[in-house]
Amino acid sequence: MSREAAKKIVDLMIKHGAEQNAVLAEIQSICADHEFQKYKRMIGQSMGCMLLDVINPIVELYPDLKPSQLE
Amino acid sequence: MNYQFAPFAQNLQPETWPNMRPNSLVGAATQAAEPWAQSTRSLLGRSNGGILGSLIPPLGGILGLGTPAPGPWSDPQTRDSMAWDAPMPSARALLSTLPASWVGPNSGDMAATDDEFCKRIRNMCIAQCSDTSLPSGNYGFSFWNCVNKCLQRYGCPTVRG
Asked: Are A36 and A28 in contact (CB under 8 A)?
């Protein structure tokens, strides 16, 4: 995978992660607690896959592409 | 019919129990005649008594032999000095101390165990971090950092493979 392609993918993951996080924050006020907990787990699964299957493997290959907010 | 019972005291000697082999787990002071006994002892980190040995005096008490000896409970200083809150060794560390014969000739068995262990840890970390770090005020990075740290804490890879 070229570095340029890898960067595009990482950027896409960050964008998607931010959107999922934002929607979760948005629906908090219109959901019952137990329902919101379920959505949190669902989004967590999705974002967890993005991290473990996409972002981390790319960062392992190209450490300089590691987002500054990622510790 | 006339039943013959052994004297009561004799029945209290573990050596006379038909299907029991004395080992370090019951706290009896035994000679390590077999390698497994020695391995178990070193694995559990007790020179005399194994896991239950820390609770039961080696030469006394219900499961012990001979005269009852005072247990650690009776002396408040001894009791309080025991490292109850010392960190437990990880499952991975314990697995790595097992003799090769217990886990198979190659590392296949260990790898399978390791995969299963880390798979569970991954699910647990994601669930835990979903509860504590979502939604976050920094575009979800708190969640991602939480998951990575959680996996590292348990010695599991942060890349699924």
From this structure: yes
Residue-number span of the structural domain to which A41 is assigned: 3-64
Q: Which residues contact B122 (CB under 8 A, 6 or more apart)?
A: A48, A52, B151, B156, B160
- pTM recorded for the entire structure: 0.55
Give the chain B residue whose CA is nearest to the CA of A17: B140
- A70 occurs within a structural domain: no
Asked if the structure places residue A71 within a domain, the reply is no
Q: Chain B residue with minimal CA distance to A58?
A: B159
Sequential pLDDT tens for chain B (161 residues): 455 555 555 555 544 444 444 444 444 444 444 444 344 334 433 334 444 444 444 444 444 444 444 544 445 554 455 555 555 556 566 555 544 444 444 444 456 667 999 999 999 999 999 999 999 999 999 999 999 999 999 999 999 87
User: Which tokens is B9 given?
Assistant: 């005291």
- Count how many domains chain A has: 1
Q: Mutate which of A26, A29, A47 to disrupt the B interface (most B C-beta within 10 Å)?
A: A47
